[in-house]
């Protein structure tokens, strides 16, 4: 059988720096675990715009559709703020999500014990936290029509449309219930059914799917604003949260801070199974391109490395190897190894992006 294939789109800002550390881990898997991957690389975001005048070429998209999994770094930067909306770096990322139909975005928020004092919340609120936000990723207000800035009388009006079909809600609900069964068997669905028709439909469909096929899973519903409040008040009440595209964007950034640093959070974006049984998939850190620290070797590569661990688990059914990578990260953190974002108010001396990657490699070696 052919080696599993990966397309690396490192993108902009710190993307290439953190991805360089992931490449070391990919090589390690081939050398030390007999799990070689076929890796190709291409451009996305501002880097693609600079080279081709578009944040995602059709050729790159075609490659993304063919491989077993895409690994993405980050897109965007102040240099591109002046560009027309249609060619902004973010459009490349959104086009990948939409065209690959990656409707289920898994954003785990796990608090590593060594970092529990780092959160802006108290230790007992976050220690041991392990929740999963399942964000709908291909519909809702991100893609709904009509959209645009129009002239109405003598002023302009900006319009976006929140639109969800029953089948779009049902498929992401199913993926949340399936995940919950492999975790603590609880799903909390979040919307704004008190003000939005799309929220009423969301609640109805999630309830129907639950009644029909997942009665063994505990289901609750919450308005998304209350959900944000509960995430900060007592996040450990949650196991899996399922929500729409925009609420998921907001709630996952909030959840990220529970864990201490945005530099820690991975994500997986999954679609329907391909002919080989593997899901269409893209893996990316939740953090952005961090232009303020780009090119300085300061970035934390852990979110990107943990995203590769998610690829091992969800695309390649290599849960044990994923756990190996996650344990290596945990060990390094427990040993007090810190990039700059992981230093508390008391300071200390941070190590570089590549030194963090090397420390994780050493922990991997030690796991053999
Ligand atoms: C995210 C990001 C993206 C989003 C941006 C970069 C388009 O914030 O993945 O959470 O809004 O989805
Ligand atoms: Mg976001």
Give a written overview of the molecule.
With 368 residues, the chain is an alpha/beta fold. It has 2 domains: 1-108 and 263-368, Isopropylmalate Dehydrogenase (3-Layer(aba) Sandwich); 120-259, 3-Layer(aba) Sandwich (Isopropylmalate Dehydrogenase), CATH 3.40.718. Helices cover 41% and strands 20% of the residues. It has 12 helices and 12 strands. It has helices spanning 15-33, 46-52, 58-66, 89-99, 123-126, 166-181, 197-213, 224-233, 245-258, 302-314, 319-334, 353-366; strands at 5-11, 38-42, 69-74, 104-110, 130-136, 144-152, 155-161, 186-191, 218-223, 240-243, 268-273, 279-283. It has a 10-stranded mixed sheet with strand order 2-1-3-12-11-4-5-10-8-9, with helices on both faces. It has a two-stranded antiparallel sheet with strand order 6-7. Helix 6 packs across helix 7 (197-213). The longest helix is centred in the first third of the chain and has 19 residues, at 15-33. The chain starts with a strand and ends with a helix. The mean pLDDT is 96. Bound molecules: 3-isopropylmalic acid (IPM) and magnesium ion. Magnesium ion binds next to helix 9. Residues 249, 253 line the site of magnesium ion. Catalyzes the oxidation of 3-carboxy-2-hydroxy-4-methylpentanoate (3-isopropylmalate) to 3-carboxy-4-methyl-2-oxopentanoate. The product decarboxylates to 4-methyl-2 oxopentanoate. Residues 5-360 form the Isopropylmalate dehydrogenase-like domain. It is found in: Cytoplasm. Its cofactor is Mn(2+); Mg(2+). Homodimer.
């Amino acid at each position: 059988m052919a080696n599993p294939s990966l397309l690396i789109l490192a993108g902009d800002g710190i993307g290439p720096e953190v991805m360089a550390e992931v490449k070391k881990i990919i090589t390690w898997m081939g050398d030390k675990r007999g799990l070689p991957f076929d890796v190709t690389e291409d451009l996305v975001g501002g880097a693609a715009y600079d080279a081709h005048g578009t944040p995602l070429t059709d050729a790159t998209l075609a490659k993304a559709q063919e491989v077993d999994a895409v690994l993405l770094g980050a897109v965007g930067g102040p240099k591109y703020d002046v560009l027309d909306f249609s060619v902004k770096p973010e459009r490349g990322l959104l086009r990948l999500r939409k065209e690959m139909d990656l409707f289920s975005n898994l954003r785990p928020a796990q608090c590593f014990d060594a970092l529990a004092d780092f959160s802006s919340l108290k230790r007992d609120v976050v220690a041991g936290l392990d929740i999963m936000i399942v964000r709908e990723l291909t519909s809702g207000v991100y893609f709904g029509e009509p959209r645009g800035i129009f002239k109405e009388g003598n002023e302009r009006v900006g319009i976006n449309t929140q639109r969800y079909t029953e089948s779009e809600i049902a498929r992401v609900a199913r993926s949340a219930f399936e995940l919950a069964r492999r975790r603590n068997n609880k799903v909390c669905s979040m919307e704004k059914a008190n003000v939005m028709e799309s929220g009423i439909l969301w609640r109805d469909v999630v309830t129907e799917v639950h009644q029909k096929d997942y009665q063994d899973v505990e289901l609750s519903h919450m308005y998304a604003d209350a959900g944000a409040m509960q995430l900060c008040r007592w996040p450990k009440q949650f196991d899996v949260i399922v929500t729409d595209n925009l609420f998921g964007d907001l709630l996952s950034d909030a959840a990220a801070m529970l864990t201490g640093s945005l530099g820690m959070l991975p994500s997986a974006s999954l679609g329907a199974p391909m002919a080989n049984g593997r899901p269409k998939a893209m893996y990316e850190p939740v953090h952005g391109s961090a232009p303020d620290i780009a090119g300085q070797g300061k970035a934390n590569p852990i979110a990107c490395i943990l995203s590769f661990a998610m690829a091992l688990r969800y695309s390649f059914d290599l849960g044990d190897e994923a756990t190996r990578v996650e344990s290596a990260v945990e060990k390094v953190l427990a040993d007090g190894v810190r990039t700059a974002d992981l230093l508390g108010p008391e300071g200390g001396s941070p190590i570089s992006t590549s030194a963090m990657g090397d420390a994780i490699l050493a922990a991997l070696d030690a796991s053999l």
